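COMPLEX REQUEST
Ligand: zinc ion
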Amino acid sequence: MTARKALLIGIDGLLFRKVASVAAPTLQRLASTAVFAESRIYPDGTTKTVSGPGWSTIVTGTWPEKHGVQDNDFVDHRLSSYPDLLTRATREGLTTFVVAAWKPITSTVISDEVSVRHDFSEAVDWAEADRAAVDRATPLLAGDVDLAFVYLGQVDEVGHASGAASAEYAAAVESADANVARVIAAVEARPEYADEEWLVVITTDHGHTPVGGHGGQSDDERSTFVLTYGASVAAEARIELVDIAPTMLSHLGVAIDERWELDGRSVLEGVRE
Ligand SMILES: [Zn+2]
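STATUS: Structure written out below.
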């Protein structure tokens, strides 16, 4: 039987339409060859378009009214009732890891049931933090792993400093593209790769305004995307942030339990039990 594996790459604050006009060959190629869907957060029209609710939504498969993360201070969150997909996979005996350059990812969003959680938020700058995260991810991706989450933070930080319309933001998107290329290359270099079926998902938690910043309800701030390839994802699938966790878990053979009360659904073609 083909071993099924999954990789989630998160690029914080990436306004995807910027990808087309910069030197981002990997994301450009994937946008045209993979299943790509844009959507706008949130259905309630009021949740702040910030990282806490964004990543919590992505990894739990539920909207903020369930996981309870309304902003970046995580007060009264219900992540223990609506755990992240790495935790759910770990409970099924799968091998997982997360590397991230934003501290709440490894301290709060991904539970401590996931034993391999590496934080790089103490790096000297955000470019270095992402580079260090990828440096840590690549050997882990060469080894025994079923599900990985690689988080990149530089694009968002540059967006805050200079705005999404800036040359600096464009350069940060290019550097994220190079990091994505390295992560994917690490997967494809696995000796067992030809006998494995990898589902790769690339996404973001919110967009950015032209002058920089997010949290509000403008189209640019609400802009998100999900890029999916490597497994039999329905090409017409309107995949949204909440669909990522159930899709990845289904691919890994983890049955979705109704009692989890997920808001998303698997967009894999056919039933995979
Ligand atoms: Zn963010």
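REMARKS: The first strand starts at residue 3 and ends at 11. The mean pLDDT is 95.
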